[in-house]
Amino acid sequence: MAKRVLGELCSEALPDEHRLDTAVHIKHLQAGDCLFSAEEQHPNVYFIRNGMIKMVYETMDGNAWIKAFSEEGKFFASLMALEPGGKTSFSTYAVCDTTVEQLPYKVLIELANSHPVWQKVLRRAFEIYGFKKETREKELLTLSPEERYVRFIKDREELAGRLTDRDIASYIRVTPVALCRIKRRVRDMGTLIYCIDDRGENHEN
Amino acid sequence: MAKRVLGELCSEALPDEHRLDTAVHIKHLQAGDCLFSAEEQHPNVYFIRNGMIKMVYETMDGNAWIKAFSEEGKFFASLMALEPGGKTSFSTYAVCDTTVEQLPYKVLIELANSHPVWQKVLRRAFEIYGFKKETREKELLTLSPEERYVRFIKDREELAGRLTDRDIASYIRVTPVALCRIKRRVRDMGTLIYCIDDRGENHEN
DNA sequence: ACAATAAATTAACCCAGGTTAACGACAACA
DNA sequence: TGTTGTCGTTAACCTGGGTTAATTTATTGT
């Protein structure tokens, strides 16, 4: 079980894997439930068995911006919270009914310290995390909200289909109202492009 | 020498350290020089001996947005370029005259595979990288341009002092013109706050 | 010291996203 | 069946950043 969840990282059997089974704590969440809140100490790594989790930064002025989504089969954690004494800067909520496996980071560190293979798996996990964050950073820096929306819908179609527009807006980093306008614009542009493709000229205006 | 550069990660002596010295390639750059360009294969890790490097995303419409700065004593790499066959999505330039040590990632992987301590050092490096990216992501998602500017100037005063406003703007993710307006606003607000602090009331308007 | 180039500032105009509010669609629930 | 509440959509207005261009202020080079 813990093994299945490691699939993203490593296909071989790993030493002392049973230690995971004893350390893992299963949690069932209903849609909207909070997994953990910002400012808490949460030195844990989570594996999503099924469902979906959203990680959100809540600002003082009452806004909430979604940092990332994590689906079944994926793992996640708050890096800040993994540091000794560190605290999460974001909260996590279940997007729909969700089951997660919670594993104290300490256990992974111990495994890593006694088995080089585990150290490697851990390193690989951070590599993947950094990779994703690098991508997100690039999107936030180089794309307009509209471009971010189009790419999100295209690249993560299945995921987007399970979300409310509200959450999509929050991830795109735009208000729900703005997302509506963007959707309309994209829709109109869509028919525009259709016209051009179809007749070879633009029939709008 | 390679040892000094690892200071950020590990204080103890590491096995086979001499392999670094033979694999490291020193590069001297003048202000403005390009270290490597986007779309290149660059499976290397860089340590900055002195000077400063900026990592920049160059968009198709001719814009350039600075992803991050790296100063002396720090290391950096393009995670995408470290993946087998991967390519950088950003370019790097020297902000001022700069000396870097270039190390093939392959060497680090080999060291990591033969020595658990090295595996750990590598893991720690990715931890730190993810940590920084998490912070940057939070700033981009939750702060306004003005807030990003104020925080940048406050948190990284020394670094900011060595940059042109142009580069600061590019990091804040606004145009140089917008940065000017922001600076003026902040300046005015500064005197405003001064008034309030000093006399207990607001003398503007 | 002066010319040439780049960087920073300011003004004017445009536009996309933020904000508030109103309305219709839909689901959950008594 | 009606009520309540949430979600998506639209309209109206406001604001701050983008854009262009002109001007002033550093920097550089000779």
TrEMBL record, chains A, B:
Pfam families: cNMP_binding. It comes from the Bacteria. Residues 10-127 form the Cyclic nucleotide-binding domain. Gene3D superfamilies: Jelly Rolls. InterPro entries: cNMP-bd_dom, cNMP-bd_dom_sf, RmlC-like_jellyroll. Transmembrane segments: none annotated. SUPFAM superfamilies: cAMP-binding domain-like. This is Crp/Fnr family transcriptional regulator. It comes from Idiomarina rhizosphaerae.
